[in-house]
Amino acid sequence: MQLGNLLANVPDQLPNELFEDIIVTPNIRVERILSDGHSTPEGEWYDQNENEWVAVVQGQGVLEYEDGRTVTLNIGDYVNIPAHVKHRVKSTKQGSTTVWLAIFY
């Protein structure tokens, strides 16, 4: 059994986004992502081979899709992003760590 807490061990300072694998199997990967005012560099897009279900546990994040749509995720909000749908993190709340839970399948 593996026991943990998504809100534990959050660093006081995050010069870069922090990506931490929680569970990795051949069919699924669960990841905690910590952001503090971070965004994907302008012009860069995630184009993943896997579907991604992502939720905001704490904070706020704004996702942008290549077609110009944006989605704002607040605490408890989630979105399912199909494989190869180009997207990026447009912004995360500055001065308050955003905790994401991402499941890749």
Automatic annotation (TrEMBL):
InterPro entries: Cupin_2, RmlC-like_jellyroll, RmlC_Cupin_sf. Residues 46-104 form the Cupin type-2 domain. This is Uncharacterized conserved protein.
